[in-house]
Write a structure and sequence with these properties.
binds pyridoxal-5'-phosphate; 14 strands; 2 domains; single chain; Aspartate Aminotransferase, domain 2
Length: 349
Amino acid sequence: MPHKEKFKAYVDEIYESGWLTNNGPLVQKLEKKLEEYFGVKNLLCISSGTNALQFAYRLLEMEGEVVTTPFSFVSTTSAIAAERLTPVYADIDSESYNIDPKNIESAITEKTCAIAPCHVFGNACEIEEIDQIAEKHNLKVIYDASHAFDVKYKGKHILNYGDMSIISFHATKIFHTIEGAAIVIKDDALYEKAKIVRDYGKDGPDSVALLGINGKINELEAAMGLCMLDEEDIIHNMRKKSHEFYTQQLKDYVQLQKKNEDATQSYTYFPVVFRSEDEMKKVRAALLEQEIAARQYFYPSLDTLPYVEHRKVMRISRDIASRILVIPMHSGVEPKVSKIIIETLQKLR
Ligand SMILES: Cc1ncc(COP(=O)(O)O)c(C=O)c1O
């Protein structure tokens, strides 16, 4: 939570203006600030990360198959299926946990219209290789950058890449608007269309031009975002310290995610992979006994979802999903809790 007094001042401002939603001054201010912060143009806030992904497919008016990762939060796939497209998986790399470009090409068919990777745990994908494949096959690239608020790739913020990039601002993220998200759109004409589609398809007070949705965030959510943005440097530095400490203490005991060297390191999550599912379960139970909840992100592997067509087993994704835990690293984790986590994991060897 950001500083309470600051949020209260925004609440007063909202009461004075009487403006609660419909692209109000605080939403506009937040969008401008985020564009500056990320060094991007054409950013729109959207009501959630899931909606932003669906919004992206709807804007592109695509049909057919989307090659995507089986190892991500469920929305990366559900948004594809919800827009009546077919998710087709390309397995991940066993060390970076990101979609492996080597597997993308063999998943492409004459029906493929897009590639939808996720920068998992903020670890940048092999962006150049993915771009080359997309160009060769004339495909769109939609990145799920929900975990990558603090990441730059080759000197530019990661949201600069792909035809579109989306980022969730859900309350569990290091930057949040309670519920909310943003989409960054490369093409200027598509950005203009997006503003209309986000607003029910209306292009004027009495005119509807396109099939639209209600994709807006409201003034209270924007106020939360503005407060959070002021505190991002503090949050980043705190997480960096915890991340580096965990890395130092745990690198010889569990598998840590291999980072893309062309990108800055994200300090948002701390995933650890155990030697077996059994070992993971033992550690999770031992931590739970001490009231520490480590999450099995991301489980299940998305190629096991009941509503997707099963073409091929994503062996690596299923394997990693069965052995992974993300250990708590947020501001509420007290040193005595980190100590228990570290000792529990160190006991493994
Ligand atoms: C990778 C990823 N994509 C999409 C989402 C969905 O975002 P939201 O919760 O804002 O709908 C999340 C989770 O919040 C996520 O972790």
